[in-house]
UniProtKB/TrEMBL annotation:
Gene3D superfamilies, A to Z: Chloramphenicol acetyltransferase-like domain
Protein name: Uncharacterized protein
Highest rank taxon of the organism: Eukaryota
PANTHER family listed in its UniProt record: HXXXD-TYPE ACYL-TRANSFERASE FAMILY PROTEIN, TRICHOTHECENE 3-O-ACETYLTRANSFERASE
One MF term in the entry's GO annotations: acyltransferase activity, transferring groups other than amino-acyl groups
Similarity comment: Belongs to the plant acyltransferase family.
Pfam families, per the entry: Transferase
Organism: Stephania japonica
Amino acid sequence: MDFNFYPMIITDTIVKAASPPVQSYVLPVSNLDLLAGRAPVTYLYVYCKLTIDGSNSFIHTLKSSLATALNHYYPFASQIILNSKTGEPEIVCNNHGAKLVEASIDITLASLDFHDLNCSLGRLVTVNHDFPFTVQITKFSCGGVAIAFTFDHLLGDGSSFGMFLKSWCEIAQEKSISCVPDHHRILPASSPPTYDNSLDDTFICYKIVDSFPMLTNNIHHRRLYHVDAMDIDKLQRLSGTRTKIEAFSAYVWKILSKAIGESETHCKMGWLVDGRRRFNRKAGDVLNYIGNVLSMAVGEASVEELKQGSLMDIADVVHEAIVKTTSEAHFQDLIDWVECHKPGLMLAKILLGHEGPGLVLSSGKNFPVAELDFGYGSPVLGTLCPPMSKIGAGYMDQRESAKGDGSWVVSAMIWPAFAEALESDPDHVFQTMTAAHLGL
């Protein structure tokens, strides 16, 4: 693919909620929203060929069903502004609308480089900071379509966005929505707020006046990989009783230890942990919560331990790191930690890149992929598309492939040596994504 080739924008419209509330209102954000920050989060889906003669009906369906979906997820049609008194962002629910961009490219899907996101799929994304939710629909000459959904992280996390996209599809198919979203964002701090001091080892707060010392560590490769189901099963067998994601993490961490400088003696790995199932409340109230309910588990190991240890040994280290964050007490501590440190820019220290090489892994195992059917057929690919933003640690996202055969799609934002180590490993777990993997 030509590195200088970009899609041509056809139309740029704003879709508003069809039946908004009579009056606008301000939705305060929770402490865990503040911790998540305002980075763009993009999910990209590819549809081989629409089951209709043209795309006009498809576009009309998307727009009309989005307008209805925004009735149920009204904060997604909001504006985000900074409160001058508190120094914190607020979600102003005023039916500002969602931005919807239509574009086209005179090439076929099969001609795309599905491995190097910098040169292909990553260019099918629109980020507009005036709109917390943006959609870009790109039509290909073969009849295929790519849809990029970009959310402001302050609106929610992966679980929130997955619920929204699933509801949108149900509305497009004229079905009742299966999830009634909870927009209350009530995750209160304790009175007085208290927290375990170990959180100070994991998280840090920078006041607005502080400089923000984040290293980039040469992290600029955005890559997409296919992982076979049989390789995932093999890794789990080698890891004993651990879960698939723990076994996969152990393998990745071991490879990571081979891709860092000789002067490094330790390296870290982090995992995003969803807290919805950790709260001891009515299950439906928490599971349908729209907003951020994320923490960061962080593990550290010596390079020698990672190189010499078995997958079972490393998977045990992974498990012990993650399990520390899987309680209601941990999440309440985290809410209280933010309460004690705000206002300011709060984040996990591993993202700064100052404490040696690190990698953060996110699992989207429950995120809708094949289910993202707007009534015209299921996608052949659904993945998170990492943004080209300044980051001090590598990042990976894992989710089920659209095939439904147990294989995974893994997107990554990593440094060149790590990419080379993953792709040259003799076990060939990480296969560079190609059109053939998608049946194109």
